[in-house]
Amino acid sequence: MTKSTTRVAADLETFTQTEITAKDVVAKAGRRNLIINGGFDVWQRGESHSAIGYGSDRWHTSSPSSISLVKEADSLHGNVAALTISNTDTNYVQAIENLSGLFLSKEVTLSFWVKSDTITSSKIQAYNGAAFTLEIGYDITSSWTKVSKTFNTGSSYTAGTVFRLYVLRTSNTTGTVRFANVQLELGSVATDFEHRSYGEELALCQRYYYEITDAGTPGYSAVLRATSGSGTQQYSQEIFFPVIMRGTPMVVITYLDMHKPGVLYDVINSVDIVPRTHSVGFRFNVANPHTQSIACQVRDFFISLDAEL
After folding, report:
1. The domains spanning 17-206 and 210-306 adopt the same CATH topology
2. What's the pLDDT tens digit per position in 10-33?
3. Model pTM?
4. Does residue 218 register a pLDDT over 50?
5. If residue 72 lies in a helix (H) or strand (E), which one and from where to where?
6. Cβ atoms of 205 and 42 closer than 8 Å
7. For the chain, which residues make up each domain, given as ranges?
């Protein structure tokens, strides 16, 4: 049975060239978004910050003055980063690893949603480790507005170079600016924001930062093997990460206690740390030696591992 000319025409869907280009980019790109945690879903360091540095995962705030960064929920965009600044230069930036090869000297498009009641403009800038290679201004209103800017990554980035992309660079402004759904992708078309699952986004973030914590609740236990020694006894433990980190992390132990039979809280005189990209090893030098392996518990601890760019 042959379709009529009218039926055939009705079955055909026509597209503009821009729509065809957008669909072609989506089909070829796979995971499109080069930004990690562009939806501000992951906040391993906490959901409220009053100091500069990393707050929402992979996003860094710099300012010579005080800031406030909090996670907010928005009915339209989901999770939002709300950054409050105080009449001084403030930057909000993500460092993108190794922008070379496929992404070197290529046309890319940055898009995001932004709003502020008092801040009316800002800049997008890129930094190659030695100089700024890009500056594009954009306007901000009190209602959610989508910013979309296409630019070339440039040729001044060698293999291994970090591409630092600033979505906020303000001067002499005061107020709160909110960001949502930040995306950087190949091509000249801003496609719809790519929503990844929380588990996938968390794994991407843990490549750069990871926490091991008991959250103040006793119960974490591990068998630590005792070895003979003079004066103090050594116990060792190795913890493997859920993903391989970008590089050997910087390890910070904020607090921990050791529990073992007959000693409620053993004194940990020192800790030797052996970090690797896939695990971290600890050797605890304690005050009460034993001559054989015993089951011990390490409790009330907070350990951070930082491999940020």
Report:
1. no
2. 455 555 655 545 444 444 445 899
3. 0.84
4. no
5. strand 68-74
6. yes
7. 17-206, 210-306
Task: Specify the amino acid at residue 172.
Answer: N
What's the mean pLDDT when you consider all of the chain? 83
User: In this predicted structure, what is the pLDDT of residue 206?
Assistant: 97
Alpha helices in 12-160 (DSSP H): 17-29
The two three-digit tokens of residue 283, written as one number:
């050797």
Rounded to the nearest 5 degrees, what angle is found at the Cα of 286, between the Cα atoms of 284 and 290?
105
CATH architecture of 210-306: Sandwich (2.60)
How many alpha carbons fall within 13 Å on the CB side of residue 24? 10
With residue 96 as reference, give the H or E element that holds it.
strand 90-96
CATH architecture for residues 17-206: Sandwich (2.60)
Local structure of residue 192 (DSSP, 8 states): P
- Quickly tell me which residue has 């940020």 as its tokens: 308
Count of alpha carbons within 13 angstroms of residue 150, beta-carbon side? 8
What is the C-alpha to C-alpha distance for residues 45 and 292, in angstroms, rounded to an integer?
Answer: 38
Looking at residue 3, what DSSP letter applies?
P
